[in-house]
Specification:
The structure holds 2 protein chains of 2 kinds. By secondary structure, chain A is an alpha/beta fold. Chain A has 8 helices and 10 strands. Chain A is globular. The N and C termini of chain A lie far apart (37 Å). The two termini of chain B are 39 Å apart. The chains are: A alpha/beta, B alpha/beta.
Chain lengths: 270, 306
């Protein structure tokens, strides 16, 4: 793995480039993670995804959005608008580094929202794969707030009450700034109106009731869009996943297939 | 930023102002990020930030990033890195135990900084298994002159039993709490079992094998006599220690001062400072405790290693 820093010195972004083992394809994949606790939980799975993609001769670039992971900035400073720019910059960086002309994006959770939004302005995109994408902002915030409470009660006992709110809303150990909170509050996936990506796909790792909604939106954007609904044997988005070396290989295999387009499958319903 | 504008760096390194990411170790398989102070102070020890469990180098709630940057701001070089098999470090293909492998990794981090920066003194900082690995490495490597152990080994005192069991038994509400806790624990166990064994399909439980070359860390506290002997050796060597305990360790540590009740050795007090975060959980989830912890560690470093 080769670490690469890009962006300006005070707002630098940390990335990791995985080169194909030999003779790479003319395809580079940028992996955009989420923020907060989800980004922590997904690190191992996304690293394995990068390894698997490199194994099938794809150039891979993982990076952390501004205010997340190894990148500069505080957690509360992140905004979707800046993260769209970050994804664009990461894509240019990968093209510079690997010399590829074709791009694909894999976005996880809110990273998928960023990727879908950014795809409206990027003409060199072969495909976007949304991995467990967020469909409804207010419901997502409710889930994160519940996670925060559960996180603490699991450690401290069910009678535990969190302390008073500080300058920023905190969700499971991470501060969120008002601009991002506001973006999430107002977001629903139907807002995504166009894409320049040639193909869209989604991989969903746990059963969810809103799959038809996701399918409707993706197929409006790309009539051939496909969804893989998987009952993964490993739930990556759990606290237990952080304490285990297991990764969701079934989910990773589905993403690799969608990115490389080597085995296009008909859309699956639960 | 175009390729022409980017600062040039070796292919296995990236730099950004005061942060530098690189692969190191023998063989080259460990990944770390060095955060440098604007102005290095000669003779000051560097701070090593170790993984907590399997959480990668950013630390629980990205706390290692905050700590490294705060320490650099205070004039200390900080190095956060992934132990082998964690984060972006490759797993070792050997037969060493988890504990021996962790010690080897930490020593290789020190070797690298000694070779490339001439640094010979280190403070090892870690939460949970990171605290344990700091302690064990310090026992065998004299380059470690300080330990910051967050929720490290804890030993019960007589008052612990009164605090933990006595008061609970007297409160009628505690029986309700006990029931709720049992329910939480059962749900947690169910999720853990699902993660380990997979899901029931067609009436059969699918087995998910452990990933190869990644050994599980099972936390065991050394016997009290062994801990006393080890800590005595560290104190005699002059190693300074900041040991913090959170209320999340309530199965082992329940009140401010428990450490000194368990170990009433005046000679330890010269080297060991103990702090108790009465309202915090194990991983410092709430930002008010993260802020306090970062501030207290920086303050301790300034007083011990000015």
């Amino acid at each position: 793995v080769t670490p690469i820093t890009f962006g300006t010195s005070d707002r630098f972004l940390a990335g990791l480039y995985d080169a194909p083992a030999s003779g790479g394809r003319d395809l580079g994949v940028v992996i955009a993670s989420s923020f907060g606790q989800e980004a922590m939980r997904a690190q191992r799975a996304l690293r394995q995804l990068a390894i698997e993609l490199a194994r099938v001769k794809v150039h891979v670039f993982r990076f952390d959005f501004f205010g997340t992971g190894d990148s500069a900035g505080e957690g509360w400073e992140g905004t979707t608008a800046e993260w769209v720019e970050n994804l664009d910059a990461a894509s240019d960086e990968l093209k510079d580094t690997a010399g590829v002309s074709r791009l694909a994006w894999v976005g996880l959770r809110w990273g998928a929202v960023v990727a879908l939004k950014a795809s409206a302005a990027r003409a060199d995109l072969d495909c976007v794969v949304a991995l467990d994408p967020i469909l409804d902002g207010p419901a997502y915030l409710d889930d994160l707030r519940q996670l925060h409470i559960d996180f603490l009660k699991n450690d401290m006992g069910p009678s535990f009450r969190p302390g008073p709110r500080g300058a920023h809303e905190e969700l499971a150990g991470f501060p969120l700034g008002e601009p991002l909170l506001d973006e999430i509050r107002r977001y629903h996936i139907e807002q995504i109106e166009s894409t320049k990506a040639k193909r869209l796909a989604a991989v969903v790792s746990t059963p969810r009731a809103d799959l038809a909604r996701l399918e409707r939106v993706l197929q409006r954007l790309d009539p051939s869009a496909a969804i893989d609904a998987i009952q993964s044997t490993v739930e990556w988005n759990t606290e237990e996943a952080m304490t285990s070396a297991l990764v969701p290989n079934d989910v990773i295999a589905a993403v690799v297939t969608r990115v490389t387009g080597s085995a296009r499958r008909p859309s699956e319903r639960p | 930023m175009s390729a022409a504008q980017r600062p040039s760096s070796p292919p296995s390194e990236r730099t950004s102002g005061r942060e530098r990411a690189f692969v190191f170790g023998e063989p080259k398989q460990l990944f770390g990020i060095l955060t440098e102070p604007a102005q290095a102070v000669p003779g000051r020890p560097a701070v090593l930030l170790l993984n907590a469990g399997l959480v990668h180098r950013v630390g629980p709630h990205r706390m290692s990033v905050r700590l490294a940057r705060a320490l650099a701001e205070a004039g200390y070089l900080a190095f956060r890195f992934d132990l082998s098999g964690i984060g972006d470090s490759e797993a070792r293909r050997d037969t060493l135990s988890y504990a021996d492998r962790a010690i080897l990794d930490v020593r290789q981090a020190m070797d690298h900084l000694e070779k490339t920066r001439g640094i010979t003194r280190f403070v090892s900082l870690g939460l949970c298994s990171g605290a344990d690995n700091s302690y064990f490495t310090a026992l065998v490597d004299e380059r470690i002159v300080g330990i910051v152990g967050l929720d490290g080994f804890a030993y019960r005192s007589p008052r612990f039993y009164l605090e933990h069991y006595g008061k609970k038994a007297l409160r009628s509400a505690s029986w309700v709490t006990l029931g709720k806790t049992a329910l939480y624990r059962a749900r947690t166990l169910r999720r853990q079992l699902r993660a380990r064994f997979g899901t029931v399909t067609d009436g059969r439980l699918s087995w998910v094998p452990e990933a190869p070359h990644v050994r599980a860390y099972i936390r065991e506290f050394p016997p009290r006599a062994e801990y006393v002997a080890g800590t005595n050796a560290l104190v005699q060597r002059g190693v300074r220690m900041l040991l913090t305990y959170s209320a999340g360790m309530h199965e082992y540590y329940t009140y401010d001062g428990q450490f000194w009740d368990a170990f009433p050795y005046s000679e330890w007090k010269r080297n060991i400072q103990v702090q108790f975060y009465a309202g915090s959980n194990h991983t410092f989830t709430e930002l008010r405790f993260q802020d306090a912890l970062v501030q207290n560690i920086v303050t301790w470093m300034r007083t011990q290693f000015a």
